[in-house]
């Protein structure tokens, strides 16, 4: 175009800039200045987007600051900066700009809300969502989906219900994407029954909706319901995909249905031509490993047509820890650590395995390796939602306005279940110290602190919902079973892998997790 010669106008460059790599973006910036288009809003905003897309927030800030002296900045400019900074992980910088915006539209609000969601800061996302609602601004499907996903991440069922009601009352169209997000929210916040009701009311169900519901049933340990829904999907002529197979295999793994897992793996491959991927082999390793069939799990890895990744090896490693296979677990453990050297959970699992055999010298070796690589152990965190208030507790510390009352309740809670036969399980305590000290440390597990807080705020017959970032340890699992009976509460715990529904001294997992 330039060689004709034909000069571009101020609508030309905005179409090129968003996809421009950094050297070209800089050249186009210079051309904008030569043509005196830099003060045109479309061109200016496209240039901002180009620098942010190239991860040059510094250049975007320089341009944005320079544009601030003229009339070129508009709501699109501010929103472009907020959204671009969020995508680069600079959410605090984005929030500072967002708070200073002279005006905001729905796209601006959603940029900040979704930015927090992508950063895993779900409570901050809900705070911004509440601010938006307080302005009286009507929402849309994009804002609603972001808010629903924030509730999912926070494990905030009451907030999720509130957002769902807001969607229905606002007349926002429940398209397939939003409907699937709502179903997923109810599943992951512990209310699979509400998820089922939403799923059943969908006028049309796409494959994503079916997969979401099957996956939700799977993580709640409802294998029979998950496989029946799969067959219903088949009857409605919806062909499964590789995600469907993962969900069905997960359902089998969580309940120890080894024969079912074998059947569905072969069935979907042969009937639908689904080519097994890494995650499918990982599911089979998990299935056999949880069931204690470690030789079969290892055979799956040996026969795979590709090199196993960290997820597949990690599944076998975890099974070795559960079934206390020291030799295989140690061999796999060191291999896993080298493949995933910055994941603290791998070191902790290996150290736990070695500690169970009393090999404290090797435990110290693992800790030293963590120190040398600057790897910090991920602290256990538990979130509990009571009356729409979300509170987080961290393992080993108690910082809360009611900390004295919570700690007193935790001690009383443990005393009462002790009278019912509770015996502390210190097998996962990573310290070569006296047994009494190990038992004392169990009281500060984040799940117990969250449950103690819940007992202060609820009455017999109520349901408490706790979301953990780690797998439930043996001691907390046994303690929570007794707490549910002694204090007459239903306690729903979502850990890293699945849901546990505790009621009347029994867990829905039947102690298989």
UniProtKB/TrEMBL annotation:
NCBIfam families found in the cross-reference section: PPR
Extract the GO molecular function terms from the UniProt entry.
Answer: RNA binding; zinc ion binding
Can you tell me which family this protein belongs to?
Belongs to the PPR family. PCMP-H subfamily.
Species name for this entry? Triticum urartu (Red wild einkorn)
**Chain positions of PPR repeats:** 74-104, 105-139, 175-205, 206-240
Q: Tell me the keywords, alphabetical order.
A: Repeat, Transit peptide
Q: Where is the DYW domain?
A: 421-513
Q: What is the protein name stated in its UniProt record? A: DYW domain-containing protein
Judging by the UniProt lineage, the source's domain of life is Eukaryota
Q: What's a single GO BP term from this record?
A: RNA modification
Q: Which Pfam families match?
A: DYW_deaminase (PF14432), E_motif (PF20431), PPR (PF01535), PPR_1 (PF12854), PPR_2 (PF13041)
